[in-house]
Design a protein that fits this description.
By secondary structure, this protein is α+β, with helices and mostly antiparallel strands. It is 30% helix and 23% strand. The protein is built from eight helices and nine strands. Helix 2 (58-64) crosses helix 7 (184-205), helix 3 packs antiparallel against helix 7 (184-205) and helix 6 (173-180) packs across helix 7. The structure holds flavin mononucleotide. The site of flavin mononucleotide has 9 residues, from strand 8. Residues 66-67, 69, 157, 211-215 line the site of flavin mononucleotide (FMN).
Length: 250
Amino acid sequence: MTELQSCLGTKYLQQTKYDREQIVSMSRPHISPGPLYKTYPQATTFLLPEAERPPTDLWDALSSRRSRRRYSEKALSLEVLSALLWAASGNSGQVGGLVLRTAPSAGALYPIETYVQVSRVQGLDPGLYHLNVRDWCLECLQSGQYGPQLAKACLDQRFMAQAAINVCWSAVLRRNMAKYGHRGLRYIFMDVGHMSQNLLLAAEGFELSACPVGAYFDSEANELFALDGDEESLIYFASVGGRQPESSGR
Ligand SMILES: Cc1cc2nc3c(=O)[nH]c(=O)nc-3n(C[C@H](O)[C@H](O)[C@H](O)COP(=O)(O)O)c2cc1C
């Protein structure tokens, strides 16, 4: 066995491969499904306004997008925040009773929840928020300046503390894995990749600075949002803020 073959990740890929001969007889774990939407009924809610459209053409945004880690002091407007979130996970259509979103999702199961650590958004107090996708509003989980704490949880990447917002994506494993079993984890990471790229392109369209973040201390980040790390765990982040003139480097 090579060192690569003995890696946990390689074993996972091997053991979750579809094989034409075995696909029908493959055993799947029995995992009961979870609800499609998560809400915090006790939280104070802030309706998100209609999303502003970015002035930049998609093709231009694709060619100019870079991970940018320097942010101005400028606050984001609520309309721009709404647009960024809409690009990643907005409701954009309906088939029968099923509401579809801007980013594709395996089996339309939408296992990714979105949280926002707000430092500077006009009309919103700094704090931790959850995006209620169904009602298109933000639910306030905690008020306060959590940028430095989140940056610390993300391997002390200090640029996150300078951002106007950090979008934090979690995986609700049950929502996907009840259908796809072990293999579902593959799809969950694909789902969040689609969502994050949509958000990064929207940020580029508004000529903001944005950077995806995948390096973090899992437990520290989960604790910040009171997530248990089993049923639901943070898996990806993106910092967004006003663009600084020389903002292409780390
Ligand atoms: C899955 C993933 C995780 C990443 N994590 C981090 C991170 O933790 N910190 C960071 O500064 N950049 C992070 N990046 C950004 C990459 O460093 C960046 O995309 C890469 O250097 C290519 O540059 P570009 O995005 O400007 O094209 C991440 C990118 C991806 C796709």
